[in-house]
Amino acid sequence: MKFEQKLISRIFAVLVFSGLSFGLYTSNNAPLPKKSVPKPKPPEVLKVDLAAIDQSIDSMLVKYGVALKRVRKKKITVPDHDFLRIEREVPIPPKVVMLLMTADFHAMAKRYGGRAIASENLKDNSVTVHIEEEKCIVQSLILRHAAYLYEALAKEAVKKTNVQQHQTTKKISRKRSH
Questions:
Q1: At the topology level of CATH, where does 50-151 sit?
Q2: pTM higher than 0.70
């Protein structure tokens, strides 16, 4: 009798598990429901002063000694929004620490109710900082160290000062000779 109870319970367990596996098999082969395509939303309007953010970023770049005339600036249309996102490629002086710059950008974005998200690209040796306001990226900065550029600018500055000093000494010597 005990032997028959064990056999019957095993047969019952096998039938239950086979029924469950068959049920799962047939439910996985059922066609997937079609997803409905969302209707296009009207463009959203940001409540943030984008010109003020742009000006703050420019002043922060000047604070770090970035040559603004060397910054490449592109305006990119943002889908479902009525503004243009600004993307900048910024050559950074070699002695500037990008981590500190990123922290300052984050503090600046917080003043406007947003945040700065940074990601590092080791392949390009760059850091990309996205300024996000109201869950939308309004500015992107691609920061790269450009020692060659700042060395050339330093040489130009030295040449200009040498030329100016030479011109000043000529003027002084002319005044003395008269």
A1: Beta Polymerase; domain 2 (3.30.460)
A2: no
